[in-house]
Amino acid sequence: MSPSRTSAARPGRPLADGVPPSAERVGQHGTVGRHTTQRRAAPGRAAVGPRHAGAPRGPAGPLGALRQVPTATVLVTLVAVLCVFGVVMVGSASEVVSLDTYGSSYAILLRECLWLVVGVVAFVLVSRADYTRWRRWSGLVMVATIVLLLAVLVPGVGTNSGGSTRWLGFGPFLLQPSELMKLALALAGADLVARRERAGRPHRTIVGPLVLLTLFAAVLVLVQPDMGTAMVLGCIALALLFASGVPMRPIAKLVGGLGGLAVVAGLADPYRRARLLSFLNPGAHASGSGYQVVQSLIGLGSGHIFGVGLGNGREKWGYLPNAHTDFIFSVVGEELGLVGAACVLLLLFAFVWFGLRAAARAPDRFGGLLAVGLVAWIAAETLINVGAVVGLLPVTGIPLPFISYGGSSLVLTMVAAGILVSIARRERPHASVAGVTGRAGTRR
């Protein structure tokens, strides 16, 4: 036995970093390492060995750094920016109609600020509360909302405006129960799916009750009539079903059948039929039902790249109806141009994206499903509103989240955002978006 081998087995020899002598290997050129793949580092450079190979890599670039920012912080920032931008645009888009209706250019803006204060208070309270408390009250919220929707239909109780009876209240203090139904459906649907999954019930026990509940709520909303909100309710239910992991083929057939019934119902009613026909060819109805869409497109086209300047738009001077509510996106495009419109869409897309991240990182199944329902609510309203403004979808009277003027719609949107932040504050780090679906895990 050679001296070099016997010396390695001497008991008095210290071990390097606790590694047994049998793990050492002698290289061809006399260098000693713990593994054959370890190489001697060049002078001035750190050695790369097994201790460093398994270490997690740090974030690379701005996107990697953004992944490390808490989701709640990002959502709060996005909500703040969207609300400030919305107040500015409501003030610009409403100054003419406010002066003509109330005798002051700032009357509608002051009301928007008042509702925003209420929304901010609700947002702060909800975001700091434990979102699981909503689960206990989901059934009561649904029942109360159904009662309010029925009350709207009672003659002399509901408030009529623009050919629709959608509000309860008096003066400027009006509540739109159909807006509350979006929150109620998201809560009740998430609770239903989570409970049925935990009990190991088959998929049909999830699909049947959720679809029937959504259809009942949608019928109550369509009677007002409010087709846009009915579409949003359908999107919330579909998102919950998709996140639950149920087979989508029967759901697709059901959606196709309901879509056909919606078209038939739209063509049967003269008001809805005029809206659908003007959507297909707004230029042919430019002086009638297609007037609003035509003026919206004129405003968007007038803005070009950078717009005509904040407050300098012309469409709000009596040409574009509902410029500060349903068609405020057209005013944004006219006054701030393509850049301003793209920024609004980017902010809303970011809100949806980080809302989905909150759903993926939710600590329990109910939180993940609830976040999915709330995100579907905001995303559906954005797509329906912008689609109507640019002429890709029929005009249904859906506001642009956080931007359009509105009382109960703004407050309830802030409540939804507050629940999302509450879920995000308890997020589990490094969870994938696939975690919101029933196929990805067993979280309850």
Characterise the protein shown here.
With about 450 residues, this protein is mainly alpha-helical. The protein has one domain (about 75-435). It contains 15 helices and 5 strands. It has helices spanning about 5-10, 50-55, 60-70, 70-100, 105-130, 135-150, 175-200, 205-220, 225-245, 250-270, 270-280, 290-305, 330-360, 365-390, 410-425; strands spanning about 25, 30-35, 160, 165-170, 175. The strands form 2 sheets. Strands 3-4-5 form a 3-stranded antiparallel sheet. Strand 3 and strand 4 form a beta hairpin. Helix 8 runs antiparallel to helix 9. The longest helix is centred in the last third of the chain and has 33 residues, at about 330-360.
The H/E string reads HEEHHHHHEEEHHHHHHHHH
The tally of beta strands, per DSSP, is: 5
Instruction: Tell me the structural class.
Output: mainly alpha
Q: Order of strands side by side in the largest beta sheet? A: 3-4-5
Span from first to last CA? 64 Å
The parts where pLDDT drops under 50 for at least 5 residues are: 1-56, 439-444
Helical content class: 55-70%
- How large, in whole angstroms, is the Cα Rg? 29 Å
Q: Given the structure, what is the number of helices?
A: 15
Estimate the mean pLDDT confidence: 82
Largest sheet geometry: 3 strands, antiparallel
Count the domains: 1
Strand percentage, roughly? under 5%
C-alpha geometry = globular
Which properties best describe this structure?
disordered C terminus, two-stranded antiparallel sheet, 15 helices, mainly alpha
Structure summary:
The protein is mainly α and 444 residues long. 61% of the residues lie in helices and 4% in strands.
